[in-house]
Amino acid sequence: MSERADVTGPEFSGLSDVVSLTSAPQQIADHILSGIAVGALPEGTLLPGERALAADLQVSRSSVRAALLRLERLGVVERRRGRGGGTFVSNAEPTALAPMADRIGEFHAERRNLLDARAVFQNSLAATAALRRTDEELTELRQLAQRYSERAEAGVARTADAQFHFAIARAGHNPELVRMAIDIDTRINAGFRHDPFSHELFDHAVADHAAIVEAIAGQDAQAAGRLCEEHFRSTTMPPRS
């Protein structure tokens, strides 16, 4: 079994935006299954407790309990009692996920559309930032790009990356653009981060961030937008099979 990963923190916040109370157990189960399928919840991951999940999702504990029971019956999670117990991802093999193949396929299609929309939108955000940024904001972007380059570990790197890109959104001096950026990011990552991470992707992102900052510094809106869109496509959107 792989090293235990604890996702009881903010990685599961935001699910209430995408879970309907009318079919909460199935939708909660679907979402967790999708996270397992894309590798965001590897084997050995400790899921949040019923109380924490219910609070995050704003649903009853009975709905959460029913969702976890469905996953247990599928054989993809197991419950352990006693000290150090909880609900763990126990089987992330494709054969275990086969009963949900159609739903997982739908999830991947929906997510690819969202990733495409985000890449297009980030083009506009970076272009706008290049034209409207202040010297202080440019300094902040340089600092955030440097901070990201020092965070070669998945969790902290993703946080630093988000801080960098939201700073670009703020440099457009339009709160609605920031709100839209947060909304689409929440829809993509609702519940847990799915973005792939590897040292190769990290090194690629470090170079991308530096190039984006220089384009914004030079107030080259076209280059800033193009570089930012290419960055999102190359680091978050796997090639079509």
Automatic annotation (TrEMBL):
Which keywords describe this protein according to UniProt?
DNA-binding, Transcription, Transcription regulation
Q: Which PROSITE patterns match?
A: HTH_GNTR (PS50949)
Q: Which CDD domains match?
A: WHTH_GntR (cd07377)
A molecular function (GO) term: DNA-binding transcription factor activity
Q: Name one Pfam family in it.
A: GntR
Q: Name all HTH gntR-type domain ranges.
A: 22-92
Specify the domain of life of the species encoding this protein.
Answer: Bacteria
UniProt cross-references to SUPFAM superfamilies, sorted A to Z: GntR ligand-binding domain-like, Winged helix' DNA-binding domain
Q: Which InterPro entries match?
A: GntR_C, TF_FadR/GntR_C, Tscrpt_reg_HTH_GntR, WH-like_DNA-bd_sf, WH_DNA-bd_sf
Tell me what this protein is called: FadR family transcriptional regulator
> Which organism is the protein's source?
Brevibacterium aurantiacum
